[in-house]
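re: ur question from yesterday

yeah so i grabbed the chain u mentioned. its 228 aa long if i counted rite. heres the sequnce exactly as i have it in my notes:
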Amino acid sequence: MAIQQTYFSKSFNSFEMHTYPTGQLGTNSTFLFNTETKDLIIFDGGHQKELSFQIIEDNNLKLEKIVHTHTHFDHCLATKDLSDKYGADIWMHKEEDFLYSILPQQALYFGMQAPAPNKVDHYFVHGENISFKNVEGFSLKAICTPGHTPGGTCFYTEDLGVTPILIAGDTLFLGSVGRTDLPGGNQQQLLDSIKNELLSLPEETIVICGHGPTTTIGAEKRNNPFLQ
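ran it thru and got these structure tokens back, copy pasting raw so excuse formatting
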């Protein structure tokens, strides 16, 4: 499956994972699907619904759920349209309810527009395994990392080969961490979340960030100025 401008692309056995930037803010959206059943999970809806529609249609994918690392508007702009078109469930942490409920107001603050959101179908909790309904042998563990937002969550798996993967949203970046100056942000809480929940992961873990290129846990432990 070819996706333009991918920040991350990996195939392993009967799974593929692809991350690509969307919209004016370059918000990363990650597609994870089974090549045999075509079942698909999207992590963060991102901006560009048309691009997502095209990827789904061109590859005959069946969108099962949209799972959010957090609900700042740029990670959710395509969520309603994807859910409406494909009947996909919407998943997030309960602590994201307030931000999710004011998506249109969030967008206006940045001079953009967002539709009123659809209802949430499932609230995951820390430690919950995110998996496919009809595909066995694969899951990602929800790791709650509040600070960037109250319910910010990362997703970790060792089921895509020898290198672990972490979908980190806006919690951790290459050489940086998520901003905490927006409503619900807390810098000390964010740093504690990263140090207590993420830095103990294997150093080779690939970190898929919410914006920009990937990094690794080891590189951030050694070089990230916010974590020294």
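noticed a couple things. Residues 8-227 form a domain with the Metallo-beta-lactamase; Chain A fold (CATH 3.60.15.10). also The chain is about 20% helix and 30% strand.
anyway ttyl
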